[in-house]
Amino acid sequence: MPTDVVITEHLSKTYRVGFWGRKVEALKDVSLSVREGEIFGLLGPNGAGKTTTMKLLLGFVKPTSGRAFVAGMPAGSPAARRAFGYTPENPALHEFLKGDELLVLLGRLSGLGGRDAKRRAGELLELVGLTGRGTDRPIRKFSKGMVQRLAIAQALIADPPIVLFDEPMSGLDPVGRKDVRDLIFALRERGKTVFFSTHILPDVEAICDRVGIITNGRLTDCGKLSELVDANARETELVLGGIGSALKERFAKVARTLERDGQLVLRFSDEEAAQAAAREALDQGGRLVSLVTHRESLEELFVRRAKEARPAA
Ligand SMILES: Nc1ncnc2c1ncn2[C@@H]1O[C@H](COP(=O)(O)OP(=O)(O)OP(=O)(O)O)[C@@H](O)[C@H]1O
Ligand SMILES: [Mg+2]
Predict the structure, then answer these.
(1) Alpha-carbon distance 164 to 91, whole Å?
(2) Do 165 and 52 share a structural domain?
(3) How far is the centre of ligand 1, averaged over its atoms, from the C-alpha of 13 (Å)?
(4) Range of the domain at 76
(5) Which of 43, 52, 220 maximizes ligand 1 atoms within 8 Å of its Cβ, making it the mutation to test the pocket?
(6) Are residues 178 and 269 in the same domain?
Protein backbone atom coordinates (compact mmCIF):
# COMPACT_ATOMS: atom_id res chain seq x y z
CA MET A 1 0.00 0.00 0.00
CA PRO A 2 1.55 3.35 -0.97
CA THR A 3 1.82 5.85 1.87
CA ASP A 4 0.12 9.21 1.56
CA VAL A 5 2.81 11.81 2.17
CA VAL A 6 0.75 14.94 1.57
CA ILE A 7 -2.75 14.98 3.00
CA THR A 8 -5.35 17.71 3.29
CA GLU A 9 -8.55 17.06 5.22
CA HIS A 10 -11.49 19.40 4.61
CA LEU A 11 -9.08 22.26 4.23
CA SER A 12 -10.67 25.71 3.99
CA LYS A 13 -9.13 29.15 3.94
CA THR A 14 -11.00 32.43 4.08
CA TYR A 15 -8.93 35.60 3.72
CA ARG A 16 -10.14 38.98 4.89
CA VAL A 17 -9.53 41.90 2.56
CA GLY A 18 -10.04 45.63 2.69
CA PHE A 19 -10.92 47.99 5.50
CA TRP A 20 -14.23 46.22 6.22
CA GLY A 21 -12.62 42.79 6.26
CA ARG A 22 -14.59 41.41 3.32
CA LYS A 23 -14.33 37.62 3.12
CA VAL A 24 -12.56 35.88 0.24
CA GLU A 25 -13.12 32.14 0.33
CA ALA A 26 -9.91 30.98 -1.33
CA LEU A 27 -10.26 27.29 -0.45
CA LYS A 28 -13.38 25.35 0.39
CA ASP A 29 -13.35 21.90 1.96
CA VAL A 30 -10.43 20.49 -0.01
CA SER A 31 -9.49 16.90 0.80
CA LEU A 32 -6.73 15.32 -1.23
CA SER A 33 -3.80 13.02 -0.79
CA VAL A 34 -0.53 12.60 -2.64
CA ARG A 35 1.14 9.19 -2.58
CA GLU A 36 4.78 8.58 -1.92
CA GLY A 37 6.84 8.56 -5.11
CA GLU A 38 4.19 9.96 -7.42
CA ILE A 39 3.93 13.11 -9.51
CA PHE A 40 0.74 14.89 -8.54
CA GLY A 41 -0.48 17.91 -10.50
CA LEU A 42 -2.87 20.43 -9.02
CA LEU A 43 -4.55 21.96 -12.02
CA GLY A 44 -6.63 25.10 -11.85
CA PRO A 45 -7.28 28.46 -13.50
CA ASN A 46 -6.00 31.76 -12.11
CA GLY A 47 -7.29 32.47 -8.62
CA ALA A 48 -8.46 28.87 -8.10
CA GLY A 49 -6.58 28.40 -4.83
CA LYS A 50 -3.42 26.55 -5.93
CA THR A 51 -0.92 28.85 -4.20
CA THR A 52 -3.13 28.99 -1.11
CA THR A 53 -3.04 25.18 -0.93
CA MET A 54 0.77 25.26 -1.16
CA LYS A 55 1.03 27.96 1.51
CA LEU A 56 -1.17 25.96 3.85
CA LEU A 57 1.04 22.90 3.35
CA LEU A 58 4.11 25.02 4.04
CA GLY A 59 2.52 26.51 7.13
CA PHE A 60 2.89 30.05 5.75
CA VAL A 61 -0.82 30.60 6.35
CA LYS A 62 -3.13 28.88 8.82
CA PRO A 63 -6.31 27.13 7.68
CA THR A 64 -9.67 28.60 8.65
CA SER A 65 -10.79 25.00 9.14
CA GLY A 66 -9.52 21.54 8.31
CA ARG A 67 -6.06 20.05 8.62
CA ALA A 68 -3.02 19.25 6.51
CA PHE A 69 -0.15 16.82 6.97
CA VAL A 70 3.20 16.48 5.25
CA ALA A 71 5.16 13.25 5.71
CA GLY A 72 2.77 12.31 8.52
CA MET A 73 3.39 15.51 10.46
CA PRO A 74 1.14 18.54 10.89
CA ALA A 75 1.77 21.10 8.13
CA GLY A 76 3.90 23.97 9.35
CA SER A 77 5.65 21.98 12.10
CA PRO A 78 9.47 22.02 11.95
CA ALA A 79 9.51 18.25 11.21
CA ALA A 80 7.07 18.69 8.32
CA ARG A 81 9.12 21.57 6.93
CA ARG A 82 12.25 19.44 6.94
CA ALA A 83 10.49 16.88 4.72
CA PHE A 84 10.10 19.07 1.65
CA GLY A 85 11.67 21.58 -0.66
CA TYR A 86 9.64 24.39 -2.19
CA THR A 87 9.80 26.52 -5.31
CA PRO A 88 7.51 29.55 -5.02
CA GLU A 89 5.41 30.98 -7.82
CA ASN A 90 7.54 34.12 -8.23
CA PRO A 91 10.95 33.24 -6.86
CA ALA A 92 12.84 36.15 -5.35
CA LEU A 93 16.45 35.05 -4.99
CA HIS A 94 19.42 37.03 -3.67
CA GLU A 95 20.16 38.95 -6.86
CA PHE A 96 23.73 39.92 -6.09
CA LEU A 97 24.88 36.30 -5.66
CA LYS A 98 25.86 33.96 -8.44
CA GLY A 99 23.90 30.74 -8.79
CA ASP A 100 26.51 28.53 -7.15
CA GLU A 101 27.04 31.05 -4.35
CA LEU A 102 23.34 31.02 -3.51
CA LEU A 103 23.23 27.23 -3.46
CA VAL A 104 26.34 26.99 -1.29
CA LEU A 105 24.84 29.54 1.12
CA LEU A 106 21.56 27.62 1.33
CA GLY A 107 23.46 24.34 1.66
CA ARG A 108 25.40 25.72 4.62
CA LEU A 109 22.17 27.04 6.16
CA SER A 110 20.61 23.60 5.80
CA GLY A 111 23.52 22.10 7.78
CA LEU A 112 25.99 20.91 5.11
CA GLY A 113 29.72 21.39 5.63
CA GLY A 114 31.61 23.72 3.26
CA ARG A 115 32.93 21.04 0.94
CA ASP A 116 29.62 19.12 0.83
CA ALA A 117 27.68 22.31 0.12
CA LYS A 118 29.99 23.07 -2.83
CA ARG A 119 29.69 19.56 -4.21
CA ARG A 120 25.90 19.63 -3.83
CA ALA A 121 25.71 23.05 -5.53
CA GLY A 122 27.68 21.70 -8.49
CA GLU A 123 25.46 18.61 -8.77
CA LEU A 124 22.27 20.66 -8.63
CA LEU A 125 23.45 23.19 -11.21
CA GLU A 126 24.14 20.28 -13.53
CA LEU A 127 20.77 18.67 -12.77
CA VAL A 128 18.86 21.83 -13.73
CA GLY A 129 21.05 22.61 -16.74
CA LEU A 130 22.85 25.64 -15.32
CA THR A 131 26.46 24.44 -15.26
CA GLY A 132 28.61 27.33 -16.48
CA ARG A 133 25.80 29.85 -16.85
CA GLY A 134 24.94 29.52 -13.17
CA THR A 135 28.42 30.40 -11.99
CA ASP A 136 29.60 33.22 -14.27
CA ARG A 137 27.04 35.98 -13.57
CA PRO A 138 24.96 37.30 -10.68
CA ILE A 139 21.32 36.25 -10.45
CA ARG A 140 20.12 39.75 -11.44
CA LYS A 141 21.58 39.01 -14.89
CA PHE A 142 19.78 35.67 -15.19
CA SER A 143 17.04 35.18 -17.75
CA LYS A 144 13.61 34.20 -16.40
CA GLY A 145 14.19 30.58 -17.36
CA MET A 146 17.52 30.56 -15.52
CA VAL A 147 15.89 31.99 -12.38
CA GLN A 148 13.22 29.31 -12.56
CA ARG A 149 15.85 26.56 -12.89
CA LEU A 150 17.81 27.93 -9.95
CA ALA A 151 14.63 28.19 -7.89
CA ILE A 152 14.06 24.50 -8.55
CA ALA A 153 17.67 23.69 -7.62
CA GLN A 154 17.41 25.56 -4.31
CA ALA A 155 14.32 23.51 -3.38
CA LEU A 156 16.47 20.38 -3.68
CA ILE A 157 19.46 21.56 -1.68
CA ALA A 158 18.69 19.56 1.47
CA ASP A 159 17.75 16.48 -0.62
CA PRO A 160 14.15 16.43 0.66
CA PRO A 161 11.89 13.42 -0.03
CA ILE A 162 9.01 15.68 -1.16
CA VAL A 163 9.08 18.72 -3.42
CA LEU A 164 6.36 21.34 -3.83
CA PHE A 165 6.61 23.38 -7.01
CA ASP A 166 4.19 26.27 -7.54
CA GLU A 167 3.87 26.69 -11.34
CA PRO A 168 7.37 25.41 -12.12
CA MET A 169 6.94 25.77 -15.89
CA SER A 170 5.57 29.29 -15.91
CA GLY A 171 7.61 31.74 -17.93
CA LEU A 172 9.61 29.03 -19.64
CA ASP A 173 9.88 28.55 -23.39
CA PRO A 174 8.92 25.13 -24.84
CA VAL A 175 12.48 23.81 -24.47
CA GLY A 176 12.65 25.02 -20.87
CA ARG A 177 9.28 23.45 -20.12
CA LYS A 178 10.40 20.15 -21.57
CA ASP A 179 13.56 20.36 -19.43
CA VAL A 180 11.51 20.93 -16.28
CA ARG A 181 9.24 18.02 -17.18
CA ASP A 182 12.29 15.80 -17.66
CA LEU A 183 13.68 17.05 -14.37
CA ILE A 184 10.43 16.16 -12.57
CA PHE A 185 10.62 12.67 -14.09
CA ALA A 186 14.24 12.40 -12.94
CA LEU A 187 13.18 13.36 -9.43
CA ARG A 188 10.56 10.63 -9.40
CA GLU A 189 13.20 8.16 -10.59
CA ARG A 190 15.18 9.11 -7.50
CA GLY A 191 12.17 8.23 -5.36
CA LYS A 192 10.98 11.78 -4.70
CA THR A 193 7.35 12.79 -4.44
CA VAL A 194 6.50 15.79 -6.60
CA PHE A 195 3.46 17.97 -5.91
CA PHE A 196 3.16 20.81 -8.38
CA SER A 197 0.57 23.30 -9.48
CA THR A 198 -0.09 24.51 -12.99
CA HIS A 199 -2.71 25.81 -15.36
CA ILE A 200 -0.91 24.35 -18.37
CA LEU A 201 -2.82 21.28 -19.54
CA PRO A 202 -0.18 19.55 -21.69
CA ASP A 203 2.23 19.56 -18.74
CA VAL A 204 -0.30 17.70 -16.66
CA GLU A 205 -1.08 15.25 -19.45
CA ALA A 206 2.60 14.60 -20.07
CA ILE A 207 3.88 13.89 -16.59
CA CYS A 208 1.29 13.41 -13.85
CA ASP A 209 0.50 10.11 -12.19
CA ARG A 210 -2.54 11.72 -10.61
CA VAL A 211 -4.29 15.04 -11.00
CA GLY A 212 -6.55 17.24 -8.92
CA ILE A 213 -8.69 19.88 -10.61
CA ILE A 214 -9.37 22.92 -8.46
CA THR A 215 -11.69 25.71 -9.49
CA ASN A 216 -12.96 28.56 -7.37
CA GLY A 217 -11.48 27.00 -4.24
CA ARG A 218 -13.11 23.60 -4.67
CA LEU A 219 -11.49 20.34 -5.69
CA THR A 220 -13.91 19.05 -8.32
CA ASP A 221 -11.97 16.04 -9.60
CA CYS A 222 -9.09 13.98 -8.32
CA GLY A 223 -7.54 10.77 -9.63
CA LYS A 224 -5.54 9.21 -12.40
CA LEU A 225 -5.85 11.07 -15.66
CA SER A 226 -7.34 8.02 -17.35
CA GLU A 227 -10.00 7.76 -14.63
CA LEU A 228 -10.94 11.41 -14.92
CA VAL A 229 -11.42 11.41 -18.64
CA ASP A 230 -12.81 7.86 -18.92
CA ALA A 231 -15.43 8.72 -16.32
CA ASN A 232 -16.62 11.36 -18.71
CA ALA A 233 -17.21 9.35 -21.88
CA ARG A 234 -19.52 11.48 -23.95
CA GLU A 235 -20.78 9.60 -26.90
CA THR A 236 -20.41 6.24 -28.56
CA GLU A 237 -20.73 6.14 -32.31
CA LEU A 238 -21.75 2.88 -33.95
CA VAL A 239 -21.55 2.54 -37.71
CA LEU A 240 -23.35 -0.38 -39.35
CA GLY A 241 -23.84 -1.70 -42.87
CA GLY A 242 -26.52 -3.93 -44.38
CA ILE A 243 -29.29 -2.96 -41.96
CA GLY A 244 -32.89 -3.64 -43.02
CA SER A 245 -35.63 -1.04 -42.65
CA ALA A 246 -37.34 -2.78 -39.69
CA LEU A 247 -34.15 -2.74 -37.64
CA LYS A 248 -33.47 0.84 -38.73
CA GLU A 249 -36.78 1.91 -37.30
CA ARG A 250 -36.11 0.09 -34.06
CA PHE A 251 -32.67 1.67 -33.66
CA ALA A 252 -34.14 5.13 -34.32
CA LYS A 253 -36.06 4.73 -31.06
CA VAL A 254 -32.92 4.06 -28.94
CA ALA A 255 -30.29 6.26 -30.57
CA ARG A 256 -29.80 9.33 -32.71
CA THR A 257 -29.44 7.91 -36.22
CA LEU A 258 -28.41 9.20 -39.60
CA GLU A 259 -27.41 7.63 -42.90
CA ARG A 260 -24.00 8.28 -44.37
CA ASP A 261 -22.62 6.73 -47.57
CA GLY A 262 -25.19 3.92 -47.40
CA GLN A 263 -24.21 3.13 -43.82
CA LEU A 264 -26.25 3.65 -40.70
CA VAL A 265 -24.63 5.86 -38.03
CA LEU A 266 -26.02 5.60 -34.51
CA ARG A 267 -24.99 7.82 -31.61
CA PHE A 268 -25.50 6.66 -28.04
CA SER A 269 -24.83 8.40 -24.76
CA ASP A 270 -24.63 4.98 -23.11
CA GLU A 271 -21.69 2.82 -24.21
CA GLU A 272 -23.36 -0.46 -23.21
CA ALA A 273 -26.48 0.33 -25.22
CA ALA A 274 -24.24 0.83 -28.26
CA GLN A 275 -22.59 -2.54 -27.71
CA ALA A 276 -25.98 -4.23 -27.35
CA ALA A 277 -27.14 -2.63 -30.60
CA ALA A 278 -23.96 -3.81 -32.34
CA ARG A 279 -24.61 -7.39 -31.20
CA GLU A 280 -28.22 -7.20 -32.32
CA ALA A 281 -27.20 -5.88 -35.74
CA LEU A 282 -24.68 -8.71 -36.19
CA ASP A 283 -27.27 -11.32 -35.13
CA GLN A 284 -29.59 -9.99 -37.82
CA GLY A 285 -26.94 -10.31 -40.54
CA GLY A 286 -25.74 -6.68 -40.44
CA ARG A 287 -22.10 -5.58 -40.79
CA LEU A 288 -20.16 -3.81 -38.06
CA VAL A 289 -18.12 -0.97 -39.59
CA SER A 290 -16.95 0.75 -36.41
CA LEU A 291 -17.72 1.28 -32.74
CA VAL A 292 -15.94 4.26 -31.21
CA THR A 293 -16.40 6.00 -27.85
CA HIS A 294 -15.40 9.67 -27.76
CA ARG A 295 -13.98 10.54 -24.38
CA GLU A 296 -13.91 13.99 -22.94
CA SER A 297 -10.41 15.41 -23.17
CA LEU A 298 -8.75 16.89 -20.11
CA GLU A 299 -9.08 20.28 -21.75
CA GLU A 300 -12.83 19.88 -22.20
CA LEU A 301 -13.20 18.70 -18.59
CA PHE A 302 -11.08 21.61 -17.31
CA VAL A 303 -13.01 24.21 -19.31
CA ARG A 304 -16.33 22.71 -18.21
CA ARG A 305 -15.30 22.84 -14.56
CA ALA A 306 -14.08 26.41 -14.91
CA LYS A 307 -17.41 27.44 -16.47
CA GLU A 308 -19.42 25.63 -13.79
CA ALA A 309 -17.43 27.40 -11.07
CA ARG A 310 -17.93 30.85 -12.57
CA PRO A 311 -20.78 32.66 -10.85
CA ALA A 312 -23.71 33.35 -13.19
CA ALA A 313 -23.60 36.89 -14.56
N1 LIG B 1 -3.12 37.06 1.16
C2 LIG B 1 -4.31 37.12 0.57
N3 LIG B 1 -5.26 37.97 1.02
C4 LIG B 1 -6.46 38.02 0.45
N5 LIG B 1 -6.85 37.26 -0.59
C6 LIG B 1 -5.96 36.39 -1.07
C7 LIG B 1 -4.63 36.28 -0.53
N8 LIG B 1 -3.96 35.31 -1.22
C9 LIG B 1 -4.83 34.86 -2.15
N10 LIG B 1 -6.02 35.49 -2.08
C11 LIG B 1 -7.21 35.25 -2.91
O12 LIG B 1 -7.51 33.87 -2.84
C13 LIG B 1 -7.94 33.37 -4.12
C14 LIG B 1 -7.03 32.21 -4.50
O15 LIG B 1 -5.73 32.72 -4.76
P16 LIG B 1 -4.46 31.79 -5.08
O17 LIG B 1 -3.29 32.68 -5.14
O18 LIG B 1 -4.44 30.66 -4.13
O19 LIG B 1 -4.86 31.25 -6.53
P20 LIG B 1 -3.97 30.47 -7.62
O21 LIG B 1 -4.76 29.27 -8.03
O22 LIG B 1 -2.60 30.25 -7.12
O23 LIG B 1 -3.99 31.50 -8.84
P24 LIG B 1 -2.84 31.84 -9.94
O25 LIG B 1 -2.96 30.79 -11.03
O26 LIG B 1 -3.25 33.17 -10.46
O27 LIG B 1 -1.51 31.84 -9.26
C28 LIG B 1 -7.90 34.55 -5.05
O29 LIG B 1 -9.20 35.08 -5.10
C30 LIG B 1 -6.95 35.52 -4.38
O31 LIG B 1 -7.25 36.85 -4.70
MG1 LIG C 1 -0.77 30.83 -7.73
Answers:
(1) 13
(2) yes
(3) 10
(4) 4-83+160-229
(5) 52
(6) no
